Amino acid sequence: IAVPQEATSLDGGFLGRIVFAGVKNGMQRISTDLMYRITPHASAEGSESAPTPAAWEQFIAAVKAKMGGTATEPDKPAAPADTSTAVQYTAQVNAPSGLNVRKGPGTSYSVLRALPNGTKVTVTKEQNGWGYIGDGWISLEWVKKIADVSAPTFEPYLFRTTCDVLNIRSGPGTNYPVIGQIKDKKRYTIVEEKTGPGSAKGWGRLKAGVGWIAKDWVEKA
User: What value, to the nearest 5°, has the Cα angle with vertex 208 and ends 197 and 176?
Assistant: First the structure.
């Protein structure tokens, strides 16, 4: 097959005629007059001179105008909405042949691994009959709930200070203002604990909502 040089480069001439040779009974010519009419080309058909840059710029501008501007990246499909409900409980697999853990909440998702019958797992989310166990989803049809998992109940306790003066702050951290001080060795009650800046051992809230003290300077009484 012989291809004219001008067909391989825009600078080689107008995109006018492409001739294919060697077809059974000789040569067959396929006209591309339409391409010739819509693309920039020299003033005389068959001329070897290349189109001018200005001609190509006009052609590109016309195409953009017809297409409504420059091409843009297609919008990516939106991620599926998370309609799961937060939960927290322990469940046990109740499937004699084991239970698949899938990538998503449904049988259309790929299997990641399988859980042997009797395996205990912690379910943290539920969605349409499926439960999330940290690294994948399982069908809740094949598990039985054992117990809810909840934070341990805090037990208030008495304390005394181990320093001469201990600041009482409005919140659990040195970023809160000082609203009082403890200057004696009486016993006080802590009813809540939280972490916060300025204390390695955390902060304790005094009974009756008086304020917060750093636990670094107290001992149980």
Answer: 25
Q: Where are the beta strands (DSSP E) in the chain?
A: 17-23, 26-31, 85-93, 99-102, 111-115, 120-127, 130-132, 137-139, 143-148, 157-161, 166-169, 178-182, 188-194, 203-206, 212-214, 218-220
Name the pTM for this structure: 0.37
Helices (H), the chain: 33-38, 53-67
Q: CB pairs under 8 A, 24+ apart, for 181-186?
A: 182/213, 185/160, 185/161, 186/160
Residues 6+ apart with CB under 8 A from 101: 111, 112, 113, 114, 115, 133, 135, 136, 137, 138
Residues 147, 153: contact at Cβ < 8 Å?
no
Mean pLDDT per block of 10 residues along the chain (221 residues) reads 40 42 44 51 48 70 68 55 84 94 95 94 93 94 82 83 95 92 94 89 88 94 88
